[in-house]
């Protein structure tokens, strides 16, 4: 028996070996990306690249995996790296405690082939940069659209971004991608109409909507690596 024996039952030995040979990058380790990272790690990929510039604060406690009172103020990449290694000590992991910016985007892909990228970033400009770079360099990528102000985890779908609706973030993304000549891009989006924010303008969240999106992203990547999609 080995840690991935249950995976071999449903995917087969050859596909699990594909996982073990793969390098998956998760950009953004918040309410969505932290769950993606957990699921990808437990699929026993051989390498992971994790990117996030942020630290845990008290507003993360309602939804982000590994957000605990003890971890408040700590770097997200440090905490999630520790968790990943506690599950799979043999994994090769690279962490980047920084933003994704045009001047430095190549650093994430330098000297090591990335097979798949999960984009769980909140910032539109960073998302566009990452998508554009990956598509120009033949790197597979799937992005998460908006999960805030929603209450129905069953409303998530996987589709081309140009077929999305009820998502203000996706609307902005479509405009930017179209301007760059990008004609297709795979995303996870919610069919649910988002609730209106309170007068403060803050975006509401819960534990079960972003986590569901994160797991859906991870499932798509793992199944695609196994050619099951």
What does this entry look like structurally?
Residues 11-180 form the THIF-type NAD/FAD binding fold domain. This is tRNA A37 threonylcarbamoyladenosine dehydratase. One of its GO terms (molecular function) is tRNA threonylcarbamoyladenosine dehydratase. By secondary structure, this protein is an alpha/beta fold. It has a domain at 5-143 and 207-225: Rossmann fold. Helices cover 35% and strands 15% of the residues. The chain has seven helices and seven strands, in the order H-H-E-H-E-H-E-E-H-E-E-H-E-H. Strands 3-2-1-4-5-7-6 form a seven-stranded mixed sheet, with helices on both faces. It is globular and about 55 Å long.
Brief sketch in words of this structure:
This protein is of the alpha/beta class. It has helices spanning 5-11, 13-21, 33-41, 76-87, 124-136, 168-179, 208-225; strands spanning 23-27, 47-51, 92-96, 116-119, 140-144, 156-160, 186-190.
Using only C-alpha atoms, the radius of gyration works out to 17 Å
Indicate the CATH class of the domain at 5-143 and 207-225.
Alpha Beta
- Helix share bin: 25-40%
Head-to-tail CA distance between termini? 27 Å
